[in-house]
Amino acid sequence: MMDFWIVASLLLLAALAVLLLPLLRGRKAQTEEDRTALNVALYQERLVELQTQQAAGVLSAVQLAQGQAEAARELLADTDGCETERRTPLAKWLPLAAAVMVPLLGLGLYLHWGASDKVELTRQFAQAPRSVEEMTARLEQAVKLQPDSAEAWYFLGRTYMAQTRPTDAATAFEKAVNLAGRQPELLGQWAQALYFVADKKWSAQLQALTDEALKADPQEATSLGLLGIASFEAGRFNDAVVFWRRLVAALPADDPSRAPLEGGIARALEQMTAAGESLPAEPVAAAATGATLKVRVSLADELKGKVLPGDSVFIFAKASEGPPMPLAVKRLTVADLPAEVSLSDNDAMMPQLKLSNFPQVQLQARISRAGNAKAGEWMVRSQPLSSSSSELQQLVISSADQ
After folding, report:
1. Backbone conformation region of residue 200, classed left if phi is above 0, alpha if psi is from -120 to 50, else beta
2. 290's torsion region: left (phi>0), alpha (psi -120 to 50) or beta?
3. Environment class of 391 (CB within 10 Å of its CB; exposed 0-12, middle 13-18, buried 19+)
4. How would you class 10 by CB atoms within 10 Å of its CB: exposed for 0-12, middle for 13-18, buried for 19 or more?
5. What is the dihedral of CA 195, 198, 199, 202, to 10 degrees?
6. Which of 401, 402, 398 lies closest to 377, judged by CA?
7. Domain 129-234 -> CATH class
8. With contact defined as beta carbons under 8 Å apart, do 228 and 198 qualify?
9. What is the pLDDT of residues 337-358, one digit of tens each?
């Protein structure tokens, strides 16, 4: 904050200079006026002296006239360029009063409407936290200053979960849901926090939240993982295997969560074998219907310090020649990058607008802090390509959105 106050002080000094300049000019004008009065008094004394000498017979009438003319010329020379404008007391003291009131008024207005606390918070977030506790304190300050920020509540909830504070996390996720709407990811996180608040006891509320999340997004990771955990804890190992296999199928090949999930599946299968239960069949990979494009989206190095983990990432496939609306869309966050996704006819926004209906398409990826799919801060566009291409397409977000 020191640099902020230095700049503010410099601006204040500039304002004071503007206000006090008329007062300084007034003092100069007063000095000139005093000098003019002195010159006039000396001129009058000179005239009296010349008249006295003429009366005494020392000067003739011609010499008297010459002396008077000379004295007049000297008076004009001395007073040339001097201001004789008179200033009232009010005009004299008004700049000084303004110079005193402006700093006080400016400070009062800034303390009332200013945002020094938010400026300081922004400076803190620009530096990496040294501990989870420090990050928690920053996020708590953020939601205090910006209670309408769903992103701040979301990340605060994630931080509380990392500290094993599910009660606080549930409150934070509920706030985020109320502000951002019932998005699948938020519902899944909220249900997970409530599950641990209830000491791992399943309830109708948890079932309703996970059902709503999976209805909106059948691959919502937190809900699938939570349902698998709850089923395993309740001894319903077949259900646990089904949920966890769905989750593994939705994860990228290099996702670190795959290993512990596969370990959980193996333990559930062991429990079923020991109990003599029939094992669920291995899931058969769904046949691709129509066109499917594989896309890897990453972030350019120069943008990594400018984005936030919660910024939305929209991945589109649009027809090179045809309707302007996207044919298929996937939504991630910056925290998910780099990521590999598939865009297929199954992701069509409208049944009549599928990838397979257009021979050439263009891929786009956009980052939007406001969660607006139509406008954001950064994006990338690919060259037109065949909708039947099977090669992995690389998109590196690096340009400002225009």
Report:
1. left
2. left
3. exposed
4. exposed
5. -60
6. 401
7. mainly alpha
8. no
9. 989 998 887 776 665 577 887 8
* CA–CA gap between residue 67 and residue 61 (Å, rounded): 10
Q: Cα angle vertex 211, ends 205, 216, to 5°?
A: 130
Taking the CA of residue 269 as centre, how many other CA atoms within 13 Å lie in the half-sphere pointing to its CB?
A: 14
What's the pTM?
A: 0.47
Paired sense of beta strands 328-333 and 339-344, if any = unpaired
170: nearest Cα among 139, 194, 202: 194
DSSP 351-369: TTB-GGG-SEEEEEEEEET
Phi, psi of 326 (to 5 degrees): -65, 145
Compute the distance between CA of residue 227 and CA of residue 229 in angstroms, rounded to an integer: 5
Note the pLDDT tens digit of each residue in 68-125.
677 667 756 665 555 444 455 545 555 556 556 666 666 666 555 555 544 554 554 4
What tokens were used for 353?
A: 């607008």
Tokens of 169: 């996390």
Whole-Å CA distances, 19 to 25, 129, 217, 251: 11, 45, 64, 67
AA letter at 69: A
**Whether the Cβ atoms of residue 309 and residue 155 lie closer than 8 Å to each other:** yes
Rounded Cα–Cα distance for residues 6 and 305 (Å): 27
Per the structure block, which two tokens stand in for 216?
A: 């909106």
Q: Judge whether 96 and 5 are in contact, CB under 8 Å.
A: no
Instruction: Render pLDDT for 141-182 as a digit per residue (tens, 0 to 9).
Output: 888 888 888 888 998 898 899 889 999 999 999 999 999 899
The b-or-e profile of 313-351 (16+ CB within 10 A means b, else e) is: bbbbbbbeeeeeebbbbbbbbbeebebebebbbebbeee
Q: How far is CA 41 from CA 45, 66, 84, 157, in A?
A: 6, 19, 16, 86
What token pair was written down for 53?
């000498």
C-alpha distance from residue 123 to each of 117, 127, 163, 164, 278 (Å): 10, 7, 24, 28, 59
- What gap in Å lies between CA 186 and CA 193, rounded to an integer? 11
Written as six digits, the tokens of 379 are 């994006």
Place of tokens 């999930």: 261
Domain boundaries defined on the chain: 2-113, 129-234, 292-400
* Pairwise CA distance, residues 267 & 260, whole Å: 11
